[in-house]
Design brief:
With 712 residues, the chain is an alpha+beta fold. The protein is built from 18 helices and 30 strands. The protein has a ten-stranded antiparallel beta sheet. A hairpin with a 2-residue loop joins strand 25 and strand 26. The chain is globular and about 80 Å long. This is Putative alpha-1,2-mannosidase. One of its GO terms (biological process) is carbohydrate metabolic process.
């Protein structure tokens, strides 16, 4: 289902807001927790008990994080808080979400970078209520609830209140202004009002002692009367939350339309940095949606780190690097380089303060490093940015952390033995050594670079020469075949070990199911025996598994870009659509959507190698606004094709690149330097219905090439 939500967001903003039902995994919707097959219903309708803040986007087993500060408009007694009402007439735009509750209340939400503004239109009622619950968090699934450790709330009168809750070790502060003239303002605890009370303090909260608590505003409402709720957030206390609110909303004035317009403008600017021409309405819709989902996470909160006092970017919802380092971070680096720089600067600071580069980093103190998933992925992104000579990062200092991080966790065993299990970490660490060597050499530390490069050649220790596949080991969310075809820094050596181009291509063909019977997709609650049999096929899982995302482009290194074109065309046609199920798996903070953007453009970034691979695009013409101006991909002979949104078996045949030029000069290779893209230029592709000899002779560069600097 993609696991996304339609709530209000701002590009890379700290705050999101959406209707809350407690469903898996974002808190929005009606599905129960599941990891295989079609999801089961948790609720029989779309419903909400209020509207919460801070949601994940497209992740998998997130369990319990976020959905804090629930705002509930009511015409029922406070005893009914927590009850859910049917959602009707939902509407979503970039930066805006609205729905009617079955109670007759119209609810609208918009967000800025660090604020949320709610607007509620009530029916005629003698005792309407606006309830802010600070005890709420997590999901309504087993083990899904988040309980605050400590909390403090203060009611200051005149529609103003503030509070701080410590969730997962992080202090989240909110400053609230409620525009409700004539309404009473009170605190409440355990669904009981505290008349005259102005402060609540909880020094120690446990699951067994938690009772809901928060703020309440109550009074008579005329039909059509609107109440505006302005919330400023901070991870550095209530005073900073108030300053954030005043900066984005102004002081004590209606701000809904102002914030909505500003966020809409911000989205228009970001989404306008990739433009396409041609294609069907459905294909353009999927492309625009994919770009939107690519620009929501990570959250970048300037001067908001709760873990160190200094100013600068603080990025959370890096969830996880395993999901985003191959596709999303290269996309951000291309079209929003300042934001990509902020993410990397924040990761360096995390390493400095907490001792390692995180694989995953949430708004949670010292939690979920995901070290089993992968190793040393930040090195890849840092090497790419360094190769582009981007300012703003102290590279000598960054190199210190890159080198030190290589020797932590699994890296210690790799350093001593040149191989480590799980075996995929051997590939991660060898690749990270190669990336770090490039930075060290550019900084003129040649002795260090030579040592790192020597160790990077230990990738070969991960493979069994008898099979050409990875050695037997444990594998995270995949198997030996999924991981055996990832793009390494020495693909030429990898292919030689597999027996050469023909043998390697045959292995890829088997993985992608050329000549095989179709695979039946699992339905609702699939039997474990069925799933085991499916995994035993050792087949491509269709982009819903991160190790598979780059594999279609492995054909380029064997001189078969025609195969890449076939696989990518099939994926773009059959695996993405405009309706429910329109994403072939978890969107994973935009990682999968970023894949779609790149594949539709006919480009794929080889993260860590300052390289793009070229294939047939899905649109007649496209352009990216990059640091150097505009990079244009234009075609001759492009044929429009539909995506399979209605299940009709139309299966458009792929197109193949016949020849290419870059800035008017012939391009005989299937790859570009990343600088060619980031500096701006024009790539022209002549397409045709049959494979050609284009790209068969000159392969993308590899570490063991006799002339590795020859690019095209």
């Amino acid at each position: 289902m993609g696991n996304t939500h339609p709530g209000a967001t701002s590009p890379f903003g700290m705050v999101s807001a959406c209707a809350y039902s407690g469903a898996y995994p974002t808190g929005y919707g009606r599905y129960a927790k599941n990891t295989e097959g079609v999801p089961e219903d948790m609720f029989g309708r779309m419903q909400a008990s209020g509207f919460t803040h801070f949601q994940q986007s497209g992740t998998g087993a997130i369990r319990k994080y976020y959905n804090y500060v629930r705002v509930t408009p009511m015409v029922q007694p406070l005893d009914d808080l927590g009850q859910s009402w049917a959602l009707e007439d939902e509407r979503a735009e970039a930066g805006y979400y609205a729905a009617n509750l079955a109670t007759g209340i119209r609810s609208e939400i918009t967000v800025g970078e660090k604020v949320a503004v709610h607007r509620y239109t009530f029916p005629d009622h003698h005792s309407a209520r606006l309830v802010i619950d600070l005890s709420c968090g997590g999901l309504a699934i087993d083990l899904g609830r988040t309980v605050p450790l400590r909390a403090q709330i203060e009611s200051m009168g005149h529609g103003r209140a503030q509070g701080t809750v410590v969730m997962e070790g992080v202090p989240l502060s909110v400053y609230a202004e409620v525009d409700s003239p004539g309404w009473r303002q009170m605190l409440w605890y355990d669904r009981r009002l505290i008349p005259g009370g102005t402060r609540l303090d909880f020094d120690s909260i446990r699951h067994t002692t938690l009772r809901p608590f928060g703020m309440l505003f109550m009074g008579a409402a005329r039909a059509g009367q609107t109440i505006e709720v302005r919330l400023g957030f901070s991870l550095r206390g209530c005073d900073q939350a108030r300053r954030n609110l005043e900066r984005e909303c102004g002081a004590g004035q209606s701000a809904f339309e102002t914030v909505r317009a500003r966020t809409r403008s911000r989205w228009r600017d970001h989404l306008g940095r990739v433009r396409v021409e041609g294609g069907t309405d459905a294909r353009r819709t999927v492309m625009a949606t994919a770009l939107y989902h690519s620009l929501i996470k990570p959250c970048i909160a300037e001067d908001e780190s709760p873990n160190w006092p200094d100013p600068g970017p603080y990025a959370f919802d890096v969830c996880t690097m395993w999901d985003i380092y191959k596709t999303q971070i290269p996309l951000l680096s291309a079209i929003v380089p300042d934001r990509a720089g902020d993410v990397l600067e924040s990761l360096i600071r995390v390493c400095e303060e907490e001792g390692n580069f995180p694989i995953g980093y949430r708004m949670a103190r010292g939690a979920d490093r995901f070290f089993r998933q992968a190793s040393a992925l930040a090195h890849t992104a840092l090497a790419d940015v360094h190769a582009l000579r981007r300012p703003g990062i102290d590279w000598s200092w960054a190199l210190v952390h890159m080198v030190d991080d290589l020797r932590r966790l699994y890296g210690e065993d790799f350093w001593e033995h040149g191989v480590v299990h799980p075996i995929t970490h051997t590939l991660d660490l060898a690749y990270a050594h190669h990336c770090t060597a490039q930075v060290a050499r550019a900084l003129n530390d040649h002795r260090l670079a030579d040592d790192l490069e020597r160790r990077s050649r230990d990738w070969i220790n991960a493979f069994d020469p008898a099979t050409g596949l990875l050695r037997d080991s444990e594998f995270y969310e995949g198997g030996k075949w999924n991981y055996s075809f990832r793009l390494l820094h020495d693909m030429a050596g990898r292919i030689r070990m597999a027996g050469g181009d023909t043998a390697f291509t045959a292995m890829l063909d088997r993985f992608f199911g050329y000549g095989a019977e179709p695979v039946k997709q699992p339905g609702r609650c699939p039997d474990p025996i069925e799933m085991t049999a499916g995994y035993a096929l050792n087949r491509f899982e269709g982009l819903n598994n991160e190790p598979d995302m780059e594999v279609p482009w492995a054909y380029h290194y064997a001189g078969r870009p025609d195969r890449t074109a076939e696989i990518v065309n099939a994926a773009l046609t059959w695996q993405f659509g405009t309706g429910p199920g329109g994403l072939p798996g978890n969107d994973d903070s935009g990682g999968l959507s970023s894949w779609y953007v790149w594949a539709s453009l006919g480009l794929f970034p080889v993260a860590g190698q300052n390289l793009f691979l070229v294939s047939a695009p899905a649109f007649d013409r496209a352009s990216l606004q990059v640091e150097g101006g505009e990079f244009v991909i234009e075609t001759t002979g492009h044929r429009e094709s539909s995506i399979s949104v209605d299940g009709i078996d139309r299966d458009p045949p792929p197109q193949y690149v016949q020849s290419a030029t870059l800035n008017g000069r012939p391009l005989h290779a299937t790859h570009l330097n990343a600088a060619d893209v980031h500096h701006g230029g024009r790539l022209h592709l002549r397409l045709g219905p049959e494979p050609s000899t284009w790209g068969q002779r000159i392969r993308p560069p590899s570490l063991s090439d006799p002339h590795p600097k020859e690019r095209r």
